[in-house]
Amino acid sequence: MPSHSSLGSALRLLEGPQTLGKGPAFWSGFVVVLALACIYPLFADGYDVGNNVYFFNWAFMALGLSLIWGYGGALSFGQTAFFGVAGYAYGVLTINFGDAYGFTFVSLVLATLIAALFAAVLGYFLFFGRISGVFLGIVTLSVTLVLERFMSQTAGPEWHIGSARLNGFNGMGNMPSLTIPWPGGDVVLYPDVPLYYLTLALLVLVYLALRMVVNSRFGNVLVAIRENPQRAEMLGYDIRRYQLGGFVVGSALAGLSGVLYTAWGNYITPSSMGMTQAALPIVWVAVGGRSDLTTTLLGTLLVLAGFQALTIYGSQYALVAMGFLLVVTVPAAPSGIIIGIGSLFSRGLKRRKAREAR
Amino acid sequence: MDFLSSLFSFAYQAGDAFAFLVLSACGLAVIFGMMGVINLAHGEFILCGAYVSTSATHLGVPLPVSILLGTLVAGAVGMLLERAIIRHLYDRPLDTIVVTWGVSMIATQGTLILLGSTMQGTGTPFGSIEVGGYGYSVYRLVLMAAAVATLAVLWLIFTRTRFGILARATIQVPHIAEALGVNTSLVYSLTFGLGAGLAGLCGGLYAPTMTLVPTMGSAFVVEAFVTVVVGGADIFLGTAPAAAILAVVKAALTSWEGQLAGQIGLLVAVIIVIRVLPRGLTGFILRERA
Fold first, then answer.
1. Which of A87, A302, B21, B287 could be A262's S-S partner, Cβ–Cβ 3.0 to 4.6 Å?
2. CB–CB of A75 and B97 under 8 A?
C-alpha cells in the first residue's frame, strides 16, 4: 500500500545525518526517559506536577530556536516577540469568546497561526532583503523590545480588544485555561496532572516531527545554507524561501510556547518580551547545544531546572549566573556542554565537535 | 510668527532626536565597522558612563569633568573586556555577539544587586529658554552641539591621527596590515575601548536628563541598533546620514502621535529600508548594492 510505504519513509526520517542518536540503543533510552516522564506524576504531588509543566512550556520555543539558529544559521534574538504575540492573542481570543465547545484549543491554534503570520511578514522583509546574520539578530531583538514598550503603555481603559483589557505593564490576566469539552462537565486543564500529560504528549510529538523535518530534504537544504549560503544558492536552491520557512516554523513554536504559558499561568505581561526574557532562550539553546534537537531539549530542561533552583536565592542572582553560563560556555564549548562533555566519552561526538569548531 | 515658532519647534525636536541617535549609535558603529560585531553590552557601557558620571557629580566634581570621567571608565572597562573575552572569539563573530549579551545580563543584574534599583539623579542643568511661548531645555541644545562635536572629533581621529590610519588599514585588509607591521591586536583593543568610551560618553551626557536605573541601557539600544542597521558599516557615510534621516522621521512621528509612535515608526522604516538597501546607506553611497 502506498500510504503504508510513505508512512514508513516518513518514520525513517526520525534518524538521519542531521540528528544525534540512532539505533536501538538511542531509542530504548528515549523510551526509558519517556516512561520515567510518564510515571513521574504517580510519585509527586499534583501541585508540583502542575508547576513542572512550566519547564515543558518553554521547550517548544527552544526547539524552534534550534531550528532557526542551530540548523538554519540565522540568529534570531527576538523569539520572545512571537511568544508574546501568541500569548496576548490567546488571551484576547479566549476572553472574548469564552472557553465553551473547545474554543480554547481553537484559540491555541489561531494564536499560534497569528504568531506564524507575524513571523512570515517580518521574515519576508529580512530574508528577502538578504540580511546578514548580525543585522537579523539586532532587528529581531529591536522588534521584541519595541513590542514590550508598546504593550507596557497600554494601561488605560482605551486599550482593549473586545472585552479584553491589555492592562499595560501589569499584563493581561484571567483568561481561561485550556478546556476539553466533555459530556457531563468540561475538563478544565488547571496546572495539574492532566495538563502535564497533554503538554508532554505535545512536546514528544513536536520533537519527533522536528526530527523528521530536519532529516528531510528541507532540513538538509537548511543545513547546507548554514554551512555555505553561496554554495547552496549555486546548487540552485532559493535560499530565501528555505530560511523564511525555517523561521516561520521556529517562530510558530515560540508562539505555541507563549500560548501554553499563558494558558498555564492565566497570565501574560509585557516583560515576557523584554531584554532579559529575550536572552534566556539564547542561553538555553547555546548552552545545551544549538545544532541538535536532542541536546537543545536536554540542555533547555537542565538550564531551566538550574535557574529555578537558583531563583530561591533571588532571581537577579540567577540571571547573573545565566550570564556567566553564556560567557563561559560559548567560548569554551561552542557546540554546547552536552556535546562538549559527551565528546570526552564518544568518538562520534568528538568528530562532530571538531567539525563544528572549524 | 506662529509658523516660525512651530518651525523652530520641529527643528528642535529633530535636532534632539539626531543628537540622541548619533550619541547612542556611534560607539556601536565604531565597533561594528571595525570588527563586524554588534556589541550587545552597548547599553551597559552607557549605563556605566551614566552611573560613574553621576556618582562623580554627587561628589562635587563639575559636570563636564564627570562626563569625561564616565567616558574614560567605560572605555577602560571596554578594553578590559576585549582583553579578557572578546579577543578569543575573533574568528567566530556571531558567537561574540552572544557572549556580549551574557556580559550585558551580568552587568545589568550585577548593578541591580550591588547598587540597588535606582540611583539619585542630578537634575538637568542650565534651565530653559522660551521661543514663541514654549520652553525649550538649554541642555538639549548642548547635547546637539555635543553630537556634532563628537562626529567632528571622530573624523579627526580617523583621518588625522596615526591610530586612525592604522585602524582604517586594519579594517580594510587585516592580514596585510599585520604583514606591514601594524599591531592589529592592539588596534582592535583600542577600537573596542573607543566604542565603549563613546557609549560611556552617551551615558554621561544623558544621565542628567533621565532616571538612573540598571536597565536604562535598553532605552538607548533600540535606537542605536536601528541607526547602525540603516547606516551600515561606515560611521561618516552611514551612521551620521542615517541618524539625520531617522531623526526627521522620528521627530515627525513623535510630534504627530507621541514618543512611542516615533519609535515604532523608526523600526518599521528600518525594516523597509533593509529590504531595499541591504548594506545600508554606506552601501548605497559606495554603490555596492547587493
1. A87
2. yes
Q: Are residues A299 and A266 in the same domain?
A: no
**A286-330 residue pLDDT tens:** 888 888 888 889 889 988 888 888 887 777 788 888 888 888 888
Range of the domain at A342: 274-358
| A48 vs A68: CA distance, rounded Å | 32
Round to whole Å and give the CA distance between A271 and A266.
15
pLDDT band at A112 (very low <50, low <70, confident <90, very high): very high
Which residue among B98, B106, B218 places its CB closest to the CB of A324? B106
Distance CA A258, CA A273 (A): 10
Residue A111: pLDDT band (50, 70, 90) is very high
How far apart are alpha carbons B226 and B247 in whole angstroms? 11
| pLDDT score of A155 more than 80 | no
- A168 plus A297 within the same structural domain: no
Q: Who among A131, A143, A323 is closest to B102 (CB)?
A: A323
Kindly state whether residues A348 and A266 are assigned to the same domain: no
Tell me which residue in B89, B105, B272 faces A125 most closely, judged by beta carbons. B272
pLDDT grade, residue A353 (50/70/90)?
low
Q: Are residues A345 and A334 in the same domain?
A: yes
CB contact under 8 A, A138 and B275: no
Residue in A75, A131, A145 nearest the CB of B94: A75
pTM for the structure as a whole: 0.87
Residue B75 has pLDDT above 90, yes or no: yes
CA distance A301 to B115: 32
Contacts of B92 in chain A (CB under 8 A): 334
- Confirm whether the ipTM is greater than 0.85: no
Residue of B nearest to A283 (CA): B102
Mean pLDDT score, A235-254: 92
Residues of B in contact with A230 (CB under 8 A): none
Residues A218 and A257 in one domain: yes
Question: Which pLDDT does position A119 carry in this prediction?
Answer: 93
Return the higher-pLDDT residue of B178 and B48: B48
Pick from B126, B157, B152: nearest CA to B139: B126
CA distances from residue B217 to A16, A192, B43, B271 in whole angstroms, order as listed:
44, 40, 4, 22
Size of interface A-B (CB pairs under 8 A): 127
Spell out the alpha helix ranges (H) of chain A. Answer: 2-12, 23-39, 46-65, 79-97, 103-128, 133-152, 193-215, 217-227, 229-234, 239-265, 275-288, 293-311, 315-332, 337-342, 347-357
Cell numbers placing A293: 534537537
CA distance linking residue B219 with residue B211, whole number of Å: 11
Which residue from A272, A290, A239, A257 is spatially nearest to A126, judged by alpha carbons?
Answer: A239
Same domain, A239 and A130: yes
Give me the count of residues in chain B.
290
